[in-house]
Amino acid sequence: MKNRLDHILKSVSKPARYTNGEHNAVHKDWTAKTVSMALAFPDIYEVGMGHLGFKILYHLINQRDDAVAERVFAPWVDMDDAMRSAQLPLFSLESRRPLQDFDILGFTLQYEMSYTNILRMLDLAGIPRRSEQRGSAEPLVIAGGPCAFNVEPLAPFFDAVVLGEGEEVMQEILDAVRIGKEQGRDRAGLLQVLGAIPGIYIPSWYQPVYDETGRFCQIDRTNPTAPAAIEKRVIRDFDALPSPDRFVVPYLDVVHDRVMVEVMRGCTRGCRFCQAGMLYRPARERSVQSIKDQVRRLLETTGYDEISLTSLSTGDYSCIGPLVKELMEEYDQTGTALSLPSLRVDSFDVQLAKDIQRFRKTGLTFAPEAGTQRLRDVINKNVKEADLISAVEGAFSAGWHQIKLYFMIGLPTETMEDVEGIAALARKVLAVGQRHQKPGRKRPTVTVSIASFVPKVGTPFQWDAQDTADSLRKKQYHLRELLKHPGFQFQYHDVETSVLEGAFARGDRRLADVLESAVDKGCRFDAWTEEFRYDAWLASFEEHGLDAARMAQRCFAQNDPLPWGHLQSGVSEEFLWVEHQAAWNAMTTSDCRLGDCTGCAVCFALDVKNKLQGGE
Amino acid sequence: MAKIRLQFTKEEPVRYISHLDILRTFERALRRAGVRMLYSEGFHPKPKLSFASALSVGVTSSAEYVDLEVEGGQVAEEIATSLDAALPPGMNIIKAAAIDDAAPALMAVVNTASYALTLLSGHGLDDAKIETLLCHESLPVERLTKKKRRMVDIRPWIYDLTLNGNTLLLQSASGSQGNLRVEEVLGLLNLVLADVDIQRTGLWIRGERGIQDPLTGGVTP
User: Fold this and answer.
1) Cβ–Cβ of A300/B18 closer than 8 Å?
2) Which of these, A58, A334, A613, B25, has the minimum number of CB atoms within 10 Å of its CB?
């Protein structure tokens, strides 16, 4: 196999994507008793290696004596084609074993445009695509990640799906598989055990029912032990959760190539478009001491020169000031840079930003998300224009000259006036920059990055239609014209991809057939512009009597049954509907960390609560 | 400050990493090893490392060289030992020496490279074919740089070429004064990169003193 592989590796681009031996990679011997898991990220090495969840699970599983985790990524198109010609089955990086040899094959569902790669990887591995076609010789094929909360379009392809945070449930799955191996359980028996574990969804135990017009009516249970709904897993005491002290250090230039430490999980700001904020409640912070310890250990074991403090909103971490100060004290003279993904507009602290970027200054990013106060209130994004202007005043006068602003278009209730508000805001920001520009120094630049809004399940906008492709294009074009001026960079995304995302994000199980057809037509790496083939997708939808745009523009009424209703984050549907109504009336809701409970009910449903380190 | 010159290897399983990957790997290994480096100035300070010549993806080497600029008070042998332990599998430190602060850069003095090209089956090469090639007074080859195509004569850059069983041994010009690309020689022998396993066996300084390795020669200003 090695010779065949070597020959192929000499002819593909970036062969290091398919080799191993990186620092901190775990090479373990397998015994008959070892429970083996292949962690599969459905995109290329450089993208998958940046995923923190993957790193965490890899090291967690490998810490067990009775288990081994190895990595596999989607081979790029040239490698995929070469492997098919050479009939070389998809293999894991560490031991180069075919995926067929593993007990469990676990995919992470991070974004809808990675779905075709999942099926392609199964094909390349020689594993039957559908759960019902697999026998006891094949690995258990499971999935987790944010898209698990609407896994219905992928339901026939997975034996089991994990909802929520993976650290605890992963151990339970490995235990169940180990015991199953010892007792010689068959596949159905193993699924029976897994299905009894909280947070695990067995799609084959459920059958969706549609009416004559194709609308979803209900989901029937085909297994009497199947629960009516599956609630996510959540780590109650996040600070006490042991975290890995090492991560694999890639050779290749990968995304997010630095030490990443989670300062907290969950966010209760309540931005209505944000799926992660709704799904991963409540907010639970790590202590400053445990963050510092983790940073120190990871720097020692990896040799990285940059630290990133990650979370859904690091600026909200209650002890961010002291944490940054202590980290700077410890690392200031060591040539280590500190980065925060983004900072809060409403309390932007110039001194904090200066401290962080003392060693290496990069641009600053803010996310107003909408161009007018009215629309920001609709989406409950608590950013006031005055705060943004004062934040950029501070930034420009302190010497920054590059500001990036994130916005969305296609938000519910949006008018062209709101879209023009984006340009107006960007112009005001640039004007501040120009006022602060000193002769001989770099000119200020404002990058405006526009995403097309996709309504997501589990959020107050899950009932709402996505904006149409024509409308989105018109808005992009209009903004591009308005921002045609030196000093602005304008970034936007292909509208057709957004429509497809819209269809899958709130899609039902009928899309599984569409997905298969698209893969059969050669669709892969849909998130990559050069590989995306909309015509093949349209044909696939048509073959099955469905329409992507119509699915993306579906509007549900309050009492309509939802195809994903049985997959629950603990946040109540009543709360989501109340928030939906508030949105359409441009009324805001506050953050429960700062005041009263807003009634999302997650704390009651899952017996959890917010846990903050600093004062509340 | 001190300047330390190291000889290192790049072997399996890292055959397929690129020069930039090697640079990154060194930067991180140096940190893990606790070597106190000197940093460049400017917006994005980087530890001061300089290599002799980039090694391509797919090529292994038993003798590469790198200069480190480190804070004073550190011993070359200790740096070599801790760095060797910190480097990932396939990369090892073979030798280390402190050299004069003002010694010229590796890139400026290294002008020769030697390779062992293991021929995979069915290559059809023999001594006669090598002889014929070397008999030419000039060997023009088309070279594409980023924007231009130009003809270069690579004959003067081939210092030695012999067939030893299944291995082709090549000694050729390397560096700014003349740089032979292995695939160009292979092309003239009707071979492609996929037909060989390439190992760089040394980098050299050819001068009045004959041929020296960069730890023997080029170490003084």
Assistant:
1) no
2) A334
